[in-house]
Amino acid sequence: MRCLRGPAAILALALLLTGCAQSVDPIERLGKKAAEGVHPHVAPGREHRHRGLARPLTRPPAHPARPFPRPPARPLAGHPAVTAPPPVIDRVPTRDPVVFLTYGDGAERDPRFVDMVRALRLPVTLFLTRSAAAPGHRRFARLRALGAGIGNHTLGHRAPAGLPYAGQRAEICGQQDRLRARLGVRPRLFRPPHGSYDPTTLRAAADCGISAVVLWRTALTPAGLTRGLAPGDIVLVDPDASGGVPLRERTARVLRAARERGLTVARLEDYL
Question: 17 pLDDT band (50/70/90 cuts)?
Fold first, then answer.
């Protein structure tokens, strides 16, 4: 079989990590069509094949029930409104055969990652710091335009646990304001740097309008995933342990691992 060329070859290499595939899997085929400017038509009842699955989903991931509604405000007499602390989650309680791809610190610098998200229409969530939302980082605006979710990762990426309330609130609310100014979004989801948090963090996050604190169930490291994937898992594609592997290839490794377990990728914001 002839080797693919051009943008389709880049996607094939990223997803298969081989020179020339003997067969074209559903994810590669979707990427090839999108890279060539062809929008694949998905026939009714065939959505599972469009997502690279051998069997249909138990429920379409675009219309899930939300297990974590926004916490209601509880005004107290003589005091400012107080909100319930947001839940801390590392997986979503769902029977859908889906996992969720998340990226921390805004550390992605692989320009072809944007092409991969566009070509595969890949749902991802990015937790950004101040440096990521700085002027000149237009990739994040492009990713947001492609449907990527944007989450808060504080201004300075300092571990919040143990810091006073004022400091934690300034880090979280300050990044909320910055993301609104730079990218036009005030996130509902927050990931504390290094997964570090305490009750003060949850109080500050609630006061900044956060509805869920998002950790992760498994992470991709140079040695592979830290544990096997299961439905509802939140995956961290860790920028701090990349081992020099481009982001698109690290993402492809997670996609292959998910497919081997009969799972696909869904948009985290649709479930929270």
Answer: very low
Question: Which domains does the chain show, CATH number per domain?
Answer: 83-270 (3.20.20.370)
Per-residue buried b or exposed e for 36-60, using 16+ beta carbons within 10 Å of the residue's own CB:
eeeeeeeeeeebbbbbbbeeebeee
pLDDT tens by residue, 43-96: 444 544 444 444 444 444 444 444 444 444 444 444 455 578 999 999 999 999
Amino acid at 213: V
Q: Classify residue 57 as left (phi > 0), alpha (psi -120 to 50) or beta.
A: beta
